[in-house]
C-alpha cells in the first residue's frame, strides 16, 4: 500500500491527533516534490493517512531557521 500524506500550517502548535481521527479542515495534499512554502515561526503538522483519509501517524513541529536552511528535512512520522 502506498503511503499518503497531507499537511497543515498554522501560527500555533496543533493538538495531538488520536489514531483514526478524521483529518482537520483545510489540510493540503503533500506536493509530489515535497516542497512546502512555510515561514520561520509557523507550525507544521504532516499526517500519514489511510485510504479513508483517517490519521495513522503524524509529525508536528515549529519551523526554525535550521529547518529552512536544510536541503532535506528528516521526518520520522509518529505511528499509532
Describe it:
By secondary structure, the protein is mostly beta strands. It has one domain (4-79). Helix content is 6%, strand content 32%. It has a five-stranded antiparallel β-sheet, with no helix packed on it. The mean pLDDT is 84.
Mean pLDDT, all residues:
84
Strand content: 25-35%
Succession of helices and strands:
EEEEHE
- Note poorly predicted spans: none
Count of individual domains = 1
Strand order of the largest sheet: 2-1-3-4-5
Class derived from helix and strand content: mainly beta
Largest sheet: 5 strands, antiparallel
Number of strands: 5
What's this entry about, in short?
This protein is mainly beta and 80 residues long. Helix content is 6%, strand content 32%.
Protein topology:
Layout: E1 4-10, E2 28-29, E3 43-49, E4 55-62, H1 65-69, E5 78-79
Antiparallel strand pairs: 1-2, 1-3, 3-4, 4-5
Task: List the main descriptive attributes of the protein structure presented here.
single chain; 80 residues; mainly beta; five-stranded antiparallel sheet; 5 strands; 32% strand; globular
